């Protein structure tokens, strides 16, 4: 922790990348662990362009349950520490694989949501946007064109949003410190950003409970610690 804190103090441009492990500490499930969402469910059947087109009832109920779960959680101490660091100028941006909006609820502003956000819905036909609360009241039909409301997330089979990629790429290239929190780094293209940061001379630190696909590139690895506890301990020494 002392080493990472020292790097953070000295860095001019720090980028933090977060994965599902960031939000499990708020009580949300991850995807690929033994208790993850995909352990007993087929993501293609529930969260893909095919499901959106051909399996809308299961698609709707899957995302309705996720939106309901989000109503019952709050940003954790790790989210709040990152928001405070952004406000203080200690970190310059967050790149997240999460769709839960917890970084923004904690107060973070400079966030690239690589996989979109489940906090809003958009009409699959005309693009009209409404709050995700519409799913909780069984509203799936757009009042403007009668199209189908779908979550504003990236489904399997879709491209990542260009604005998020451009934001993430710009900050990654500028980074002299890149910190990964709670990601196995197994999903591309999100997993390419830490490697890109290393190529441009940044130090790479990974905080994750299990091994990641990029451990061999890391300058520092912290395992078996809660992210919130790690950030709190660092914050006390900044």
Automatic annotation (TrEMBL):
One Pfam family it belongs to: SIR2
Keyword Ubl conjugation: no
Binding site for Zn(2+): 123, 126, 142, 145
GO molecular function terms noted in the UniProt entry: histone deacetylase activity, NAD-dependent; NAD+ binding; zinc ion binding
Subcellular localization(s) per the UniProt record: Cytoplasm
Keyword set, alphabetical order: Cytoplasm, Metal-binding, NAD, Transferase, Zinc
Deacetylase sirtuin-type domain boundaries: 1-238
Cofactor, free-text remark: Binds 1 zinc ion per subunit.
Active site positions: 115 (proton acceptor)
InterPro entries cross-referenced by the UniProt entry: DHS-like_NAD/FAD-binding_dom, NAD-dep_sirtuin_deacylases, Sirtuin, Sirtuin_cat_small_dom_sf, Sirtuin_class_U, Ssirtuin_cat_dom
Family assignment from sequence similarity: Belongs to the sirtuin family. Class U subfamily.
Summary of the function given for this chain in its UniProt record: NAD-dependent protein deacetylase which modulates the activities of several enzymes which are inactive in their acetylated form.
NCBIfam families assigned to the protein according to its UniProt record, in alphabetical order: PRK00481.1-1, PRK00481.1-3
Identification of the protein by name: NAD-dependent protein deacetylase
